[in-house]
Amino acid sequence: MIKRQQPQSLHKSPEAGYTIIESLVAMIVVSVLMIAIAPVMAFSVATRVQAKRIEMATQAAKTYIEALRSGAINQGFPTQYTTNNDLHNTPAPTDINALYCIDKDGDQTCTAGSNQDLVVQGYYFNNLPATTDPTKTGYSLIVRVYRASSFASGVGALKTQKDLNAQQGITTSGLGNLQAPLVEMRTEIGASDRQGAYNSLCTRINGATGCQ
Questions:
Q1: What is the distance between the alpha carbons of residues 181 and 117, in angstroms, rounded to a whole number?
Q2: Of 169, 173, 183, 149, which is closest to residue 45 (Cα–Cα)?
Q3: Can you give the pLDDT at residue 78?
Q4: pLDDT at 169
Q5: What pLDDT was estimated at residue 196?
C-alpha cells in the first residue's frame, strides 16, 4: 500500500532566514569597518602618489645637472649668486618662465597650474666676476625642483627648504606643500678649462688672493 506524501507547509519557521533588523545590523557593521579603514587606504594612496612625484622630481634635477655638465643647456642656466658660498640662502623663484622646463604633458611648455609639468631652479657660486665664463671655471650648484602648479594664482610665495626648516614630507594628503620644492640638492659642476678650474678652486678656497 502506497502512502501519500503529506504536503509540506508553506509557512517557514520563525527562526529561518534573515530578518530586516539583522540585515540592518550587518549593513551598519560593514559601514563602520569601511569608515575605519578608509583613512588608511587614502593615506596609503597619498603616500604612493607623493613618493612617485618626488622620484620624478629627482630625475628632473639629475637631468638638469647632466645637461649643465654636457653644455646642452641653452635656456634656464643657473643664476650667479655672489653673496657667499651658502647657496641654501638663495631665494625661491617667482617667475616660471625664467626656469628650466621639464615638459610632462607634451604641450611644449611649462604653464602655471599644470599638474604634470616640473620646473627647475638653479643658482651657482664660484666667487669670480660675473664676466667670467662659469663653464670654463667650474662652480658650486644648488638645484630646486618645483611643480608648475606651484605658480598658480592663490598658492602664495614659494619657499625653500631652508625657509621651511625641514625637507618636505611625502605624506601631506598626496599633494604636499605647493609652496615647497619637491627636491633640493647641491653639487659641483666641473670646468671645461683645467687652468680655469684650478684658479677657480683656489679663489673659492683662499678668497680674492687665489693661489698666490
A1: 13
A2: 173
A3: 93
A4: 47
A5: 56
Contacts of 8 (CB under 8 A, 6+ apart): none
Q: Where are the domains of the chain?
A: 28-209
pLDDT of residue 18: 61
- Indicate the DSSP class of residue 208: G
Residue whose C-alpha cell reads 607634451 in the numeric block: 106
SS3 of residue 196 by DSSP: helix
> Residue 68: which of 139, 144, 148 has the closest Cα?
139
> Model pTM?
0.71
* Residue showing cell 659642476: 189
pLDDT of residue 133: 83
The grid coordinates of residue 137 equal: 671655471
Q: How many CB atoms lie within 10 A of CB 57?
A: 22
- C-alpha–C-alpha distance, residues 93 and 151, integer Å: 9
Q: Which residues of the chain have pLDDT under 70?
A: 1-18, 74, 166-175, 192-212
Task: Determine whether 62 is exposed, middle or buried from the number of CB atoms within 10 Å of its CB (0-12, 13-18, 19+).
Answer: middle
Length of the chain: 212
Residue where the block lists cell 638645484: 143
CA distance 119 to 25: 53
CA distance 182 to 167: 9
Q: Which three cell numbers stand for residue 2?
A: 502506497
